[in-house]
Amino acid sequence: MKSLEELKAIRDRMQGQVGMRSEDDTQTRVVVGMATCGIASGARPVLTALSDLVQEKNLHNVSVTQTGCIGLCQFEPIVEVFEPGQEKVTYIKMTPEKAKDVVEQHLIQGRIVKDYIIPKTLG
Amino acid sequence: MMPELSLNVLDVAQNSVRAEASLIEISVLADTLEDKLTIQIQDNGCGMTAEQAAHVEDPFFTTRTTRKVGLGVPFFKLAAESTGGSFSIDTAPGAGTTVTAVFKLSHIDRMPLGDMTSTIYTLITMNEQIDFLYLYQVDDRSFTLDTREFRQVLGDVSFQEPEISAYIKEYLAENEQETRQGIAI
To answer: How do B97-104 and B141-146 pair as beta strands?
Structure first.
C-alpha cells in the first residue's frame, strides 16, 4: 500500500523549489466541457491527456480547467482555448490524440489546428 | 448510457461540485459473497427541496439553462435498476445530498466499474477548493484517500504540481490493485 510517508518525502524534496503559478493576464486557459454530454462522449481521457501534456511540456502559462455543458452537446468532447487578447478557439469531437496535436501546434507553436475547430456556421 | 460506472460517478459528483459542497464522500463497496456493489456519493452542498428531488430522476428536469435535458441521475438510476439493484436520493435544503446506487455484481447488464482512478484523480485535481474522502472496498480489504490528510502534509502546495499529481494517481492505482487482488469489478 502506498502511504502518506511517501507524500511527506516528496514534499520535503520539493521544499523551496515550488514554482508559483502565474495567474495574471498572460495565462492561457484550456477548458474542457465535463457535463453528462461531455463525459459520455469521452471528455475524461481528453482532460487527463491535456493536463498530463501541459505538465510534461512545462507550459507554466497554461492552465487546464473544466466547465459544465457548453450547449453544443452534439459536438462533445469540446475543448475551448482562451488566450489573452485572442478570440476563443473551440475544438470539437476531441480525442486524447487530437489533444496532443492541440498542445503541440496551438499551445506551443501558436498555430490553431484548423481541422479540429468548429465550423463558423455552426458555432 | 455511460460505458462504465466510474463515468456515472464522475458525472453525478459534478452535481455535488455545483451544489457548492466543501466535502464530497465517495464510496465503492463490492461484496462478492452478497453479490452486491454499492456506490455512494455524499455531499454537504446546498441540497434539494422535496420537489426538486422528486424531479431529478426525470430526464427532462435540469437546473441548468444551456440545455433542456438532464441525464446524469437518470443514467445512474437506470444502470443500477437494470441489474435488479436499487437507487435512492436522500436530500434536504441545506443538508446536502446522498446518492446511493446498488447493483447486482454478477448481473449480465451491470456495466463494469471501469477506471475509478481517473475519476477520483480528475475530481481531486480539478476541484482543489473541495475536500474528498474516497473509500474503496472489496470484501474485507479496503483503502481510503482523504484529501484533508494530503493537505495537512502538503500545506499550500497544489495538487496540480507534477510530482504531487503523479503521486495521487499512483496512490489510487496501486492501492486499488492491492485491494482488488485480481477480482474484476
So the answer is: unpaired
